[in-house]
Automatic annotation (TrEMBL):
GO molecular function: flavin adenine dinucleotide binding; sarcosine oxidase activity
Database matches in Gene3D superfamilies: D-Amino Acid Oxidase, subunit A, domain 2, FAD/NAD(P)-binding domain
Any Pfam family matching the protein: DAO
InterPro entries on file: FAD-dep_OxRdtase, FAD/NAD-bd_sf, MTOX
Originating organism: Alexandrium monilatum
Organism domain of life: Eukaryota
Keywords: FAD, Flavoprotein, Oxidoreductase
Protein name from the UniProt record: FAD dependent oxidoreductase domain-containing protein
Annotated FAD dependent oxidoreductase domain residues: 10-387
Amino acid sequence: MAGSQAAAYDVCVIGAGLVGTAAAKYLACRGLRVVLLGLDEASGARGACYDEGRIYRIVDPDIVWARLAEASIGRYPAIQSEADRSFFHECGFLTFGDPATTYMQRTVELVRSGGAGTEGCVFLEGRDALEGRFPWLQLPPVAHEWLGIFQPTHAGHLSPRQMLAAQEHIAGLHGAARLRNEAAAVRHRTGGGFLVQTGEGSTVAAEKVLLAAGAKSFVLPDLLPPGMQQLDAQLITSQAVLFQVDPQTAPADMPVLIYHGREDPAQRFYILPPIRYPNGSIYLKIGYDGEALRRPLTNAAEVDAWFAAGVCDSAVVTTAREHGLSLFKGLALAGPEGHVVCVTDRTCPGEERHRPFIDSPAPGYFVAVGGNGWAAKSADEIGRLAGALVAGEPDWGPDLPREAFRARPRASL
């Protein structure tokens, strides 16, 4: 057992990304002594939150993710107002592709049921309907039928960097402490609670710990208390290409897009409208959204090397250029491309549904992990649910049941 000094904090949140920062905010709002522990971008942190463009939408094939998004998006204006920092832009969301795919069928089912704030969505059936509504769209000559679902409001793109800054600012206003250090190990503390050791050799004492360290949560076993089994998730590469475009040739009314056809990789992309990045360039972001070109990452060293390289696989770049850019009529490129690499943590990889783990797998130790590549837009609600659970006042709902978020241990080899 480690030392017996009094706990300095009620809760130590490990991981200062979008979920961890939201959870720290909600815990601080409850009057708890909270410390948010994690590196920031300036001190070397890497992750999905260090980008300028992520999709937000409610329409989804899974009601759980739709409800998480609905709750979070509904609070965006209040978060923006309290922090006095803009981070989202509403432009609508269009998902389109082959109506025979499971993804499209489940999405249609959710929208037709009227669940999760999908009122006002428009179905666009057939090539003519899609290209008529969006004249800049140029669908490929494939044999399957076409279907589009357009969500005109409560959808668009957000800046994860600015959202993170807004949430951290609000957390600080409510008393959360911020330590820009990296957690290295979690140990039980004599008399109860935990000691969190940092990479610099210091120690943080807390009665409870919430792990929200993103993909690293699954490959750093020392972040789990002694005796706790690792959680069930697979880490895979996530890649997007930034095409520098001439804004005069870009569609003026372009929503965020998810393209889901039969062919992988040629018909599996998410695409954001042109966005100005910190270097001043305007990029159209085309992210690969299939399975064929993903690669597994099995340990922390591979994750670090992937982020450090910062370069997309050549097959992803080629596919995005040949099949993603070709969706747009008259779009002109204006300079060199950029790359965005990240890591997706897929929970319960052997199952059809992949949801975040929001749970307490050991006494006093909690997790809010497993974003599955979809958590940015829903981070506020994931953080709120986690904060309520840590505070001893869980707040599940009919479409957000307790069982949907149970942490599952990894099967022994």
